[in-house]
Amino acid sequence: MISLRSIVSTIACVSASTCLAQVPDFETDVRPIIEKHCAKCHGPEKQKSKVRLDTLSTDLISDRPAAETWHDALNAINLGEMPPEDEPELSSEDRKILTTWIRGTLKSAIAAQKSTGGEVIMRRLNRMEYQNTMTDLLGIKADYGKNLPPDTPSEDGFKNNGAALSMSPLQLEYYLASAREGLSRAIVSGPPPEKIKITTTESTKKSNRENSTNRLGYSGSFVGKFLEFPDEGAFIIRVKARAELVEGKAFPRLKATFGYRADTQTPSAELGEIDIISSEATTYEFRGRMEQFPVQSRTQSKYPGQLVMLGNAFDDGIKRKDKRTIEKEVEVKNKKGKVQIKKQKQTEWIEHDDVPKIVIDSVEFEGPIYKSWPPEHHTRIFLPSANRENGELIYAQEIVGNFMTRAYRRPVEKTEVQSMLRLYTKIRPTSATFEDAIRDTLALVLVSPDFLYLVEPETGDGKAKTALTDHELASRLSYFLWSTMPDAALFEAASNGELRAPKKLATQIDRMLAHEKSWQFVEQFTNQWLDLASVDRVAVNPDYYADWDDIIKPSMQAETRHFFAEILRHDLSALNFIDSDFAMLNEPMARHYGIKNGPRGNAFERVTLPADSPRGGLMTQASVLLGNSTGEDSHPILRAVWIRERLLNDPPAPPPPNVPPLESEDPNFAKLSVRKQLEIHRNDPACDDCHRGIDPWGIALENFNAIGNWRTEIRRKNGKKFITQPAEAQTELPGGHTIDGVADLQDFLKEHRKDQFARAIVARLTGYALGRNLEFTDESELDALTEQFSEADYQLRPLIYGIANSDLFQTK
Amino acid sequence: MSNKPWHLNRRTFLRSTAGVSLSLPFLECMGAGEIAKNGPKRMCAVYFPYGASLPKNDSPDANWSWMPNGEGRDFTFNNSLKSLEPFQNDLTVFKGLSHPNGRKMGGHDTADIWLTGAQFKGGNFRNSTSIDQLAAQHFGETTRYSSLTMSTDGGVGEPTRSSTLSFGRNGQPVPAHNRPRLIFDRFFGINADSMKSQRQELKTSGSMLDLLLDHSKSVRKNLGHQDQQKFDEYLESVRSIEKRVDRSQRWLDIPKPEVDASKLHLDSDESTPAEYIRTMYDLIFLAFQTDSTRVATYQLGNMNGATSVAGQFPQLLGFGNKIHSLAHGWNKTGGAEKLGKWDQYLAEQLAHFLTRLKETPEADGSMLDSTIVLYGSSNSNTHNNNDYPLLLAGGSKLGLNHGQFLKFSKDTPLTNLHVTMLNRLGVPTEGFVDSTGELAEIVA
Predict the structure, then answer these.
(1) Cα–Cα nearest to A494, from A482, A503, A505, A483
(2) Does the ipTM surpass 0.90?
(3) Any CB–CB contact under 8 A between A658 and chain B?
(4) Is A462 near chain B, with CB under 8 Å?
């Protein structure tokens, strides 16, 4: 039934990510169906409900009312309301053509409406970019973005999309507050604050229910209480400790936290973890800034002081009992003063000989520590300059101009500085000090659009795209690969015009990828591309997984980030995302996967996978599998949608309105395997249209349970009891390929969908780099990038060069 | 609290994140602040996603229906709303109401229009003003804050999956607060600075915003057409906080109400849902009690199954599954009871809030008498955009006639209830979106 023309268009866009697959042609495919089934009541003679379909406009982009009528028609067909009962039913093929046409045409109309004509919409720094930029600009690590409302992700899940990121009064209010707070911290006054140095050797104890001790084993903690502490500045905590090692066991691991939240009774934040490897007393240092560990109230009488808590984070996966209740005979005085022997229940903490211990000798707090006074973060604002002697206004001009250049990430005009100085001049007479007036003036800079947005003013006539300036290019590059402002070297390269030549650009990119800030790219891109936050949204049901501990969730997410980083930094083929012979694991993850002789400790290492391991590639990673599960069982549909969306850039249409739930008249329905349930589901033609193209991708992963462990049997609760069913992963992919399990799926993808996958990565990475939705007009450039990508053995670095060199990236 | 150990058990220590449950919060308000003399009229709207358990009357699980039995003044609650029995004469339950525009939308798309009734489909993602914001605009500067907008996910989210219930002028989403401590600091936090320096800071802010507006207008000139449109959000925000600063200057001499925070779980978050939901309700109560605002909305969760952090609440609280899955399973064996228990839990939280309103005397009645609370969803059960579970509580002094279970046909748009609410709040409203009149049945 489908015409040649639509088949041709289908083939043409197999690899085109944003292209709408298989939209039939109206005149040849759709009109005959309408004439046959609809025109009797909605045609020339009758227009029931005032709807006439045969002449209804098909140009849904410009004719909104027509779009809405088609939308209503789609709903009526989906709900089985149309054609009505007394009319012949639509054949499933006709129905599919009709609904696919309406859905596809609506979708492109929506896309056209959202289109920006391939221009990057002026985008605001997102929360993470703001946080990083403020940190770099002011030179103080603190939580600048903590009060900002969460950012809205784009349809592709990216949080740096100019069109999706909005501004609101509340947001701006918090920017202002954060700017003032940050600047107050950066700008100091008066003599250097006195340094506090206190050592404690004893752990504080408040009740007998606590295992307060200097010897940290499976349980127990050392709590150092410091009543005197500064509010600001860097500090060092020195822990003198030694290990009691156990043969055949990993090193004990010292975990230190700082601060205490009285209301939730948890440490306020982590200082760090370190393996204790020596049985000689050794001093270990933890550093931080007081600002990162704010005390809610200095006057909270019940919980005064700052607390350093130390514990042993040794974890070999064995769960042990940490305490038992014993009865002890104790002497108790009665009211008359007579001594009686009474039995009393007490908690006894159990020592485990097979757990290595940490013995704490002393804990020292020292702070605030300043290398110089005034500190560097002050002098980078109040420059040591000859202008200091030339009167306040001239000095102010220099300070503000210098700060603006860095904040705006470009050279600034004199008039721009003058306009900011208007505030300075206005408030200086009523400000107590010169510093106060400067602080408020700089706060104004930090809420200016030039700082909060990546502003790229139009230089041409507004019709054709024009080239970015060098500094705009530097900013785009910096927010792409570092999620923060350009550093001095990149800024200088821009100023010297050294970014344009592809070779020099490549040198900068290499430098940037080698820099530790590129972890911000790895983290942001991986989180958003693969939706790693999904792991946090699933609660694992302990009835199903008795040994489960949420503590492993961050390791699952970290595994995937390290996997991406390994492929990026070692120039491995991106096809490793589909299937790889190695994994990036730490001890908990290796244990989770049942991989023996894996790494020790929490650091991630490259591990060559045993030949019989089902692991390898993203689809086998626990982050993906758990994130797309119910917390009890796999969720084949979620997993399938994830594969189509994230790996193939071909997201299925969202469910239509008023979908009936997955159910059946069959009372034994609940006892069927998910695969069978989905088969029954697909018996309904309304469901089958879409789900035939969805379900199989997820069925192939049925050998992985909710938490990503391998299984051959599925355990499910039926009433109060568990029943087991065989895990069935054989399925037929769209196009008729029969596969059985994840290995087949990986082979299929590598063999038949390599181009689509490559195109998907190119599209995702380009969308992220640009901070905008991709559009039809971008297709040819994406095709070119994809071709280069495959010629470069699917390495990410050349792809990044290619994106940065493309017109997409270099024009506005 | 004082005898709680500092030393944490191993798991808590290793995790070192979320909160641990404490005793029930019940705060005493130390200096409740003066309630305005002309009698405040307040409204609050609380939304839960995916609808409710609605087994048929003849089903063995019928007692887990969200809807009561009976009709009119003669009705009894099923298990789900049992905890609302003490308020039977202070509330009305509705069956059959929905937004006609919503019926044409995607099954998960309708939270956005719960309070707006807007037409929101076919690529048109522009919402219109919600009733709470209409009320807030009308009340103007009677209170320190015009409204309190809260949700579990916070921010604005994306169209059709918004994480806020409130939409201001032109349908711009109002970002929702989702962190109790921030809400508390904003409404009740004591500013450590002296009055003089606060005044100075506000004055400086005023000058800054003036200049910023000037400067931004010149930035706008150099932008392309599309950027200009985007940039108008920013300009609008500058104008709006300029007004806020003005307002703060006028409110400066009136101290913020003093409220005892010691029993609030201000650091609770989505990982501790019991404390979190309770605290959010407590904050609305406090904001009302101190007359810091008269309008509040609270979206307990949205229908973005893929990203809403509220989805796992029932799992964390021991109800077995994600909200979406519970909602999907309501008509499977045992499913009505499972979802019903979650419905019941949510209703208990509402009951707690209503109790606090009712137990707080005001004029010659209670706060509840002049507070209209709308509670419900925009699905009947999951994906179905008709026959919303809805109830309206409080406001008998504002002219509402309660104690009923009312059934309507599809012909009555939900906006008729919205119009009724607005008029009772003293916001004269003839029509709202697709309304056809008031709901005469509940007008005293």
Answers:
(1) A505
(2) no
(3) yes
(4) yes
